[in-house]
Design goal:
Elements (H helix, E strand, L loop, with lengths): L2 H12 L2 E5 L8 H11 L3 E5 L7 E2 L2 E2 L4 H10 L6 E4 L7 H10 L3 E4 L6 H9 L3 E3 L4 H8 L1
Parallel strand pairs: 1-2, 1-5, 5-6, 6-7
Antiparallel strand pairs: 3-4
Helix pairs in contact: 4-5
Length: about 140
């Protein structure tokens, strides 16, 4: 097993709550399909998308920002483990900065999403990182 595979297995086994940045309410979108799958596997999904803030996606309240979502979870005694980004590569930097600030355990960039500078900051802050991988595909592969 490669180091990357060990990291992925560790993240998925130790995590319970996934904030999905860019989660769409539209069932045909990849973000919705992936989040629904992860929810069906026992993970709590926390939608983060300013376009849907205050509404519910997959039965969970949607927040405008990661900071807002993290604060709400703290009130319930929880925390965000994984920040899963469904954003364009050029738009993930602020989400990664927020992930560091809220104390997330890991940042996961979906297939086709890259920002090496931001991910280097995440690693330097102690977060585990996964780049250009689908969390659903990796979960299925390991289980």
């Amino acid at each position: 097993m490669s180091q990357e595979e060990r990291t992925i297995a560790s993240i998925l086994s130790k995590s319970h709550t996934i904030a999905v940045v860019g989660l769409s309410a539209r069932a045909e979108r990849a973000s919705h399909e992936v989040a629904a799958y992860m929810q069906s596997q026992g993970y709590r999904i926390v939608p983060v998308n300013p376009a849907y803030a205050g509404t519910y996606i997959l039965g969970e309240r949607c927040y405008a920002t990661l900071a807002e979502a993290a604060e709400a979870l703290i009130q319930d005694g929880g925390k965000i483990d994984i920040v899963n980004c469904f954003r364009k590569s050029a738009e993930v930097g602020p989400a990664i900065e927020e992930a560091i600030l809220i104390g997330a355990s890991s940042v996961w960039l979906q297939l086709g999403v890259f920002d090496e500078a931001a991910m280097a900051k995440a690693r330097q802050a102690g977060l585990q990182t996964v780049v250009d991988k689908c969390i659903k595909i990796e979960h299925r592969r390991l289980h």
